[in-house]
């Protein structure tokens, strides 16, 4: 109903025009979104739409629509959901759209042409949905690039490493770097990306000691550059095999980091985590178990508003009064839990409690009445009918009558 109202209002104000079936679009359209237009249905070409600034394609489109050589004024191109197979010709044409600010690609594309260097005004590049594994150096040399999304390695830059370091230190505007697979080249370059605020790194188990040392220095430097509470910085690390040396450093001064996500074989909480200022979201995910030492360290992390713990097993976790005082959301995903105990008057601000485990035997220490501001409880849909009934009855007796949701998990 809300979507229909928005569309109606937009049509009345001549902001949106809807076209169905054989209708032909004309006029000075500036934003064009095509939804599953088959070749026989689409009756349009760029000649009809010379003022298009933004083009989004879902599903298939007529080949005339994918003639990018005629979109001279295009600023935004979103092909992430496009089902047509884009070839080298399409990519070359895209690289000639010199006014592009935003480019999102999808489908079977596996190589970006070096001609992408011509997109001097490009600010956002998203290739998450493609099959691109190697990123050409020309991408990180784009002077206006701010956000880069995907999962890829950087092509060999050993012969240009000095030039790249200078560019990144002095001219790069890159703020978001999401999905880089760390290797020797990347580990050396990241330390020179001074404007980064959001970083997501994947690391393969084949990294040698030298690479780990470079990457550790770069991560430390990224965190140390967070000197203001308003920076809103985030760091996500995904490691198949966790190296204790990677995050063993300590912080020399107060550093601000808003979000931290660690995924891998976590044996202990890195020492810098408990000293961070402004950390509002913390997510820890391990294929193994979380020991009591890890859980005790987590409970003293300051300023947390969201805490997510994912593991196969967890030791006893006791949250005492005075710990995690402003936590709003707690999510635990576990196969088995020894015990979770929330003391009376602990977690005074908690509004959402997610316990995603088919075995609730380890959650008997939770008294819902102790959580005065609770609004929502989410449980695994696979728990027994008896457990569902118990939690629903407890919710009915709670002053706020929180919702009890049952979530289907893998």
From TrEMBL:
Annotated ranges, domain Disease resistance R13L4/SHOC-2-like LRR: 52-403
The entry's keywords: Repeat
Pfam families per the UniProt record, alphabetical: LRR_14 (PF23598)
Species annotation: Triticum turgidum subsp. durum
Superkingdom: Eukaryota
Membrane spanning stretches: none
Entry protein name: Disease resistance R13L4/SHOC-2-like LRR domain-containing protein
InterPro entries recorded: LRR_dom_sf (IPR032675), LRR_R13L4/SHOC2-like (IPR055414)
Signal peptide: none
